[in-house]
Known about the structure:
69% of the residues lie in helices and 0% in strands. The chain is an all-alpha fold.
Amino acid sequence: MEHRAEIEQFHGALGSIGEMAAFVTLGLTVPLAVLGRLDVWAPGIALGVALAVAIRPIAVRLCLLGAAMSRPERRLVQFAGLEGAVPILLGTYLLTTDLSTADRLYGLIIVVVGFSVVGFSVVVQGGLIGPAASRLGLVSESTPSRDREGSGSE
């Protein structure tokens, strides 16, 4: 295919725009009063840290048992982070129920996924992914950097 790289880059950008639109739209469904409650933030942050530090790496490790990957590659995938709007979208179904605590539970999901997990993934794991890959021996001198990838003249 003649313009494969450009098409893939366009689709990647389009997917990112769609993901941002989904998060903004889902964010508009959150009652701000719920986000100010301590009974939402305390368990939300605790659960978010547990997901990012322990639960996800264990689940990913189990999922990768049969994968044809080296041990360092598996460790990097375990470290990589959580993302996605699916848990938030599924949480909106809580708002359609007759549960008296539906707002609190939805707020908890927003705090866990939206702030704790995504924030932790972006700030901590995103900032450390390069050094982690280097430490695991997955980056070499011949690995192209982002600066060099887009500078080809075609």
